[in-house]
Amino acid sequence: MRDLAPALLAWDRFAVASVVAVRGSAPRPVGAALAVGPSGEVIGSVSGGCVEAEVYDLACTVLSTAEPVLATFGYSDDTAFSAGLTCGGSLDVLVQRDSPSLRAALRATVDGHPVSVRFTASGRVFTETWLPPPRLLVFGAIDHAAAVAEIGRFLGYHVTVCDARPIFATPQRFPAAHEVVVDWPHRYLASTRTDESTAVVVLTHDPKFDIPVLTEALSRPLAFVGALGSRRTHAERLDRLRAEGVSDAALARLRSPIGLDLGGRTPAETAVSIAAELVALRHGGTGAFLSDLSTPIHHDTEERDGPDLPQRRRHAGRPAAPAAAGHADGVPGPQCPEVPVLLGAGQVPRHARVGHGGGGR
User: Fold this and answer.
1) pLDDT single digits (tens) 82-133
2) Counting beta carbons within 10 angstroms of the beta carbon of residue 219, is it exposed (0 to 12), middle (13 to 18) or buried (19 or more)?
3) Given 3.40.605.10, 3.40.50.720, 3.30.70.660, 3.30.70.600, which CATH number is that of 135-283?
């Protein structure tokens, strides 16, 4: 839902459907959302197309009645027109109307604050946490950086492009970036906030820029550190980094040459290759052709409620944040730098059907 926040806040009323549980194989993870606006317009998706029409109808009903609905969609082959997931899994969807507290939470997440909200439907409680979007730091104001910034923003990153050369590091050259910084890359990285979800992409392949910023990056617990360059450049870069005292364990984290082997050459194709590696690492993908594999397309196929696999990996080992005043009703409370993802914490019965959820069903 957080991804839809700007559009939702622009509407005077809306109904939003959120995936609160997934069992087996399903196209979208827990947290995926679809919303319907005051004139029937629709944004988002909960299933990639399988059950969108029926969820849309439910959202239209909730928009007029303001009564929340808890619905289950599973595989159905009874008729060609049955609403179900052709991939064989099932999902539970909570549909609710907008409220002052939900709007307050959406405004807070747009402003970059971590927010926990609680939704109640027919006696069941679902808790969701929205963390600020992950950061993508792109060092090197070259043509490839413009393409990487664009696809990074498309993937939901907060994108920063940084270069020490003011003639190249301009907002006009990087319209997709959220911010363009003129500074030495290592100095900017040393002074900026990063966490375990931050990705660093170094595109300059110039030692006077690369070595200091990579030395700094590899000393931090980042999600991804990658650098552009040939294999020869990479080998020379490793020697220079070792000379700076970077350990072999830290060097093993460096993804270089960056990207998956797609065979592309243009800046746009290179950006797709880099983005593909980011997505594969984030979700535990192999990067192989799906047509050559016999394993399930959606990797986490066991019955589960709660965060999807990458969220669980990303937050593994983090201490749970204590409950904060004001969070329970959707109003942002004190800032929590480490908030566990809790969407789907309420248990939805497997036998629930489309319609109102109820404690006795």
Assistant:
1) 444 445 577 889 999 999 989 999 999 988 888 888 887 767 788 888 888 8
2) middle
3) 3.40.50.720
